[in-house]
Every structure is written in structure tokens, then in C-alpha cells.
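Sequence, please.
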């Protein structure tokens, strides 16, 4: 399949929004009596198996895998993992002036309503990152079907519009970008319209 770039469809409706959002910066809260350097801010970011920040490229990577955050065997483990994850994610959001790129990886073989809710919450938190130059999303799945693609719907509510989506289909060893105006794109837009969704 040919590789064609897709951006958030709302870019067509609000052409000035992306630039307005990019000009905003998130101010970090300094320690009383001390101004932190960017390096100190980076050092203060918590380590988490699902979160990573590369200070060289200013890229923040979040990996949502089926075995970790989305559907661990124990409900207690899932609750603890999610509480820790969102606590750490909120800290990264506070340091978002240092982050210019986000890479979100979603791997969830059998999506549930709870998984969809978690992904929506993650995207909502990422909407607080206001200094982005780009945001890429990789949807890793064995085969592509509507249930798998529907998890991407919260992206259409982002205030930041310069995002792209790639789908990696392991069964056919293919990786390609979704197309703006393509069948999945139009179907997601139609569902948002049917549900009356305006934001994430």
C-alpha cells in the first residue's frame, strides 16, 4: 500500500489552530528559591516502563501494550499500573515545554471498552503538551479491522492537528500510514459525527 500522510481532519476546519497552539508554552513550576535548568527538569522526570524521554531529540514516547497497561491478568495490578502511569504522565505534561515530539504506540490485540477509555484518557493528557512540532501514532495489530481502528478516534479531538497515524499489521508484515479522506478516516469522522463528539 502506498504511504500517504494523514493529519488530524480538523486541520481543514481550523487552519489557524495548530499555529496558535504551537506558540503556547507550558511554564514549569520552579522549586522555591531555585530555578531549575532544562537538564534538571529532565532528571526529575520519573522512570516508567511505558514512558520514555529522549533529551537529545526532545521526543517523548508512550507505549501502551496489551500485557502492561491495557489488560494485565490481575485487576489489582492493572489499577496500580494505571495509577502510577497517569501520575507519571502528568509530570511529563508539566515539563512539556521541553518536549517537541510525541510518539504513541498502541498495541492491544482484543480491545475492550476499558481499553478504549484508557486510551482516551491518555490522549486527553497528551493534549496538554503545547510545544509540539509533531506527533506520531503507531497502531500495532495482528490484522486490521474496525474494532482495532476505532481505538484511534480520540485523536480526532486533539487541539494539536499535526498528527500522523501508521498501522503495523504483523500478519501481512505491512506498515503503512492512514490516508486523510481514506475509508478508515471517513468512517472515524462519521462515527464522531453520529455520537456528537466535539472534543476528545
Amino acid at each position: 500500500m502506498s504511504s500517504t500522510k494523514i493529519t488530524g481532519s480538523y486541520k481543514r476546519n481550523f487552519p489557524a489552530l495548530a499555529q496558535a497552539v504551537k506558540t503556547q508554552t507550558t511554564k514549569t513550576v520552579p522549586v522555591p528559591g531555585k530555578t531549575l535548568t532544562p537538564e534538571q527538569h529532565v532528571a526529575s522526570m520519573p522512570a516508567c516502563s511505558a514512558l520514555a524521554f529522549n533529551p537529545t531529540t526532545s521526543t517523548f514516547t508512550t507505549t501502551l501494550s496489551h500485557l502492561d497497561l491495557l489488560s494485565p491478568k490481575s485487576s489489582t495490578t492493572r489499577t496500580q499500573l494505571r495509577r502510577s502511569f497517569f501520575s507519571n504522565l502528568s509530570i511529563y505534561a508539566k515539563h512539556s515545554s521541553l518536549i517537541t515530539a510525541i510518539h504513541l504506540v498502541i498495541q492491544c490485540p482484543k480491545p475492550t471498552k476499558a481499553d478504549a477509555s484508557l486510551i482516551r484518557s491518555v490522549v486527553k493528557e497528551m493534549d496538554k503538551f503545547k510545544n509540539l512540532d509533531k506527533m506520531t501514532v503507531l497502531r500495532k495489530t495482528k490484522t486490521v479491522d474496525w474494532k482495532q481502528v476505532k481505538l484511534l478516534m480520540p485523536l480526532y479531538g486533539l487541539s494539536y492537528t499535526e498528527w500522523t497515524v501508521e498501522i503495523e499489521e504483523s500478519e501481512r508484515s505491512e506498515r503503512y500510514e492512514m490516508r486523510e479522506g481514506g475509508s478508515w478516516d471517513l468512517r472515524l469522522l462519521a462515527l464522531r459525527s453520529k455520537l456528537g463528539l466535539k472534543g476528545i
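The two ends are 29 Å apart (CA to CA).
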